[in-house]
Amino acid sequence: MRRTRAIIGLCAAAAFFAAGCGTTEQAGGRDDSAGGGEPVTVVDSRGEEVTLDGPAKRVAATEWNGTESLVSLGVMPVGVSDVDGYGKWVGAAPLDGTAKDLGTRGEPSLDALGALDLDLVVVTDSLSEGALAQVEQIAPVVVIKGGGAPDPIGTMFENLDLIAKATGTEDAAARLRTEFDAKIAEGRAAVERAGALDDPVAFSDAYVTSGEVSIRPFAKGSLVSEVFDRIGLRNPWPMAGDPDYGLASADVEGLTQLPDVRFWYEANGSETDAYGEELRDNAIWKNLPFVRSGKVQRLPDSLWMFGGPKSMEQYVDAAIAALKA
């Protein structure tokens, strides 16, 4: 398929700059009534109209939020950046083993994209203009938002609906929204039964660089914290997050700003558990009120913090389980 709009200009830059951030059942396959082979026009996050000859079938994604949306909609992508990493982090929408690895999310391979006979490439708005122009010479491109503060849940569904229209899977997108709303209602009821409505929950992740622990609070406007807010858990982080993802930065001393909250964090089997390993014997860490009171919990692995509805449903389940622990 070819887009009808013209590409204006080219850039020689070959590097891609993707956001560092960016279920077990699929929502259903392609809708029988969708598209009918007729041209499909969508307006992406840039405000650009992109017209396809029909609903896209052979689709690649350069970021994991786009990949998760495709899989959840029943469209198995033929190309994915960092297939191995996606498998380790995104348990909500697993790949089937057929996707071609496009290289890193920061620098997907143009050669790999060009070999796939693509109908569509889904990228995020962090892709540089020059890199975007190069991809558009290979196949039509729709740009989705990488982050969505201050309305991350709304942005998540905007992205999903855009991809659904481009792939003719609008009915599947509607089902995903209904399932998400039901999971939120289920989660809020569970929080209320646990007597935890309005309890403060500080969610974060952390990483180790050259022996130093950097902490990333998920402040107001972050996707996971907004999901927790909808089920009745309050975000106590005092610092403001960045305008795209609602993420802040802190060190262990910064954690002293928190009172005796529930402190939940995400790690992964492929990463160092900074809280459980690096800070275990740290005097400041050991004397934090929530550490002393035993309110620190590591959530399950393979929950993608920047994903779609299926990943966020996993976070609701994880929150309910953590309240019962």
UniProtKB/TrEMBL annotation:
Assigned keywords, A-Z: Signal, Transport
Localization (cell): Cell envelope
Alphabetical list of SUPFAM superfamilies matching this protein: Helical backbone' metal receptor
Residues annotated as domain Fe/B12 periplasmic-binding: 58-325
Gene3D superfamilies with a match to the protein in the record: Nitrogenase molybdenum iron protein domain (3.40.50.1980)
Major location (coarse): other
InterPro entries in UniProt: ABC_transptr_periplasmic_BD, Bact_iron-sidero_bind
Keyword Signal among UniProt keywords: yes
Signal peptide residue numbers: 1-27
Family of the protein in this entry: Belongs to the bacterial solute-binding protein 8 family.
The name this protein goes by in its record: Siderophore ABC transporter substrate-binding protein CdtB
Taxonomic source organism: Saccharopolyspora gregorii
Source organism phylogeny: Bacteria, Bacillati, Actinomycetota, Actinomycetes, Pseudonocardiales
Gene that encodes the chain: cdtB
